[in-house]
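Dear colleague,

Thank you for sharing your sequence with our group. We've completed the structure prediction you requested, and as agreed, I am returning the results in plain text so they can be pasted directly into your records. Please verify that the sequence below matches your submission; if there's any discrepancy, let me know and we will rerun it promptly.
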Amino acid sequence: MEYYASVIQKLQNELGLRVSSLHDIALPSLKFYSSSCSQYLNNNNKEITQEEMLRNEYNDRFTS
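Please find the predicted structure tokens below.
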């Protein structure tokens, strides 16, 4: 169930939807976002502030 829940959260994010917190199986949306941020930083080998991350996410969702 955790695998499918994580896939649902990933797809919600990719579609620009609000990521659901799935508390019944211990997958809050905050865990998804923190994991996504860590992956982003590891893939790009650079440090960004939380404010910059939120601004980038906002721009990705609302300026395309």
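Summary note from our side: The mean pLDDT is 75.

Kind regards,
the structure core
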